[in-house]
Automatic annotation (TrEMBL):
Record bears the keyword Protease: yes
Sorted UniProt keywords: Hydrolase, Protease, Thiol protease
Pfam name, any one: SH3_16
Domain NlpC/P60: 135-260
Keyword Ribonucleoprotein belongs to the record: no
Family: Belongs to the peptidase C40 family.
Entries under InterPro entries matching the protein: NLP_P60_dom, Papain-like_cys_pep_sf, Peptidase_C40, SH3_16
Gene3D superfamilies referenced in this protein's UniProt entry, alphabetically: endopeptidase domain like (from Nostoc punctiforme), SH3 Domains
Species of origin: Heliobacterium chlorum
Top-level lineage group: Bacteria
Protein name: C40 family peptidase
Length: 263
């Protein structure tokens, strides 16, 4: 297997290289990939940053790794679209910080270019929650998800240009340094159930099922215990707040689950 990285701000991964094909996820600039197979300008890759998710990507969207790894602090982009002089970086992308000034730092991109960003646009990576006075994780998860309000729904989407339900959950928790599976049914499978609504906390996940047997939609429980949740909905056209007590959601509500964080 050959190691490469994604060389554009955002790259589509598809279920097959030829038509008809369906987008399965997206990867970010600098994300490492393992090339599994090549075919007519396409390469099948595995994304370690997304739980070894596999898909087909255009060969032009990849570059071969060159040179030694850069030592030093790593940061993760914390805005849906962090703009710098020569382009933009999506939330979730991780880079080494090679220099800093009073208000920000210099990120070394895989091309060798430098992106200067203010500290408010990025977080230390991996994100560490070492202080008892830290803001509750659920609130930070909701804050990240809320940055995507109004973002169009896109099957397989993982950015401010378009995102799907499990992608929104994945991104909100990724910023906390927590790795969840990419797809809703797999997220449901690995998480612990919350048996009663009265025990829910902000940041818990709410799952829905069309047929009552497998989770096929997911959202993030809001604060206040009023039935509010934020999600990327295909029927609503994008990321919005909804209430699970409304008939359209209550009828397909499957379960609540919680992301357990080890201390």
């Amino acid at each position: 297997m050959e190691d490469k990285y994604i060389s554009c701000p955002l790259a589509d991964l598809w279920n097959r290289p030829d038509e008809p094909r369906q987008r399965v996820t997206q990867g970010w600039l600098g994300s490492p990939v393992e090339v599994l197979e090549s075919q007519d300008g396409w390469q099948k890759v595995r994304l370690p940053e997304q739980g070894d998710y596999e898909g087909w990507i255009k060969a032009d969207d990849l570059e071969t790794k060159r040179g030694p790894s850069v030592e030093g602090p790593q940061v993760i982009v914390a805005l849906p679209k962090a703009v710098f002089e020569n382009g933009w970086l999506p939330l979730g992308a991780v880079f080494p910080m090679v220099d800093s000034w009073e208000e920000g730092g210099a990120l070394l991109l895989p091309s060798g270019d430098i992106a200067w960003l203010p500290f408010g646009d990025m977080w230390e990576w991996p994100h560490k929650r070492s202080s008892e006075n830290d803001r509750p994780m659920g609130e930070e998860v909701l804050q990240t998800a809320a940055q995507f309000l109004g973002t169009p729904y896109l099957w397989g989407g993982m950015s401010c240009l378009g995102i799907d339900c499990s992608g929104l959950v994945f991104m909100a928790y990724r910023l906390q340094g927590i790795e969840l599976p990419r797809d809703a049914h797999e997220q449901w499978e690995v998480l612990e159930p919350v048996e009663k609504e009265k025990y829910l906390k902000p940041g818990d996940l709410i799952f829905f099922s069309t047929d009552g047997t497998i989770a096929d939609h997911v959202g993030i429980v809001g604060d206040g215990g009023q039935g509010q949740f934020i999600h990327a909905s295909s029927s609503l056209g994008g990321v919005q707040w909804s209430n699970w007590n409304e008939p359209r959601w209550k009828d397909s509500l499957f379960s609540f689950r919680r992301v357990q964080v080890s201390t």
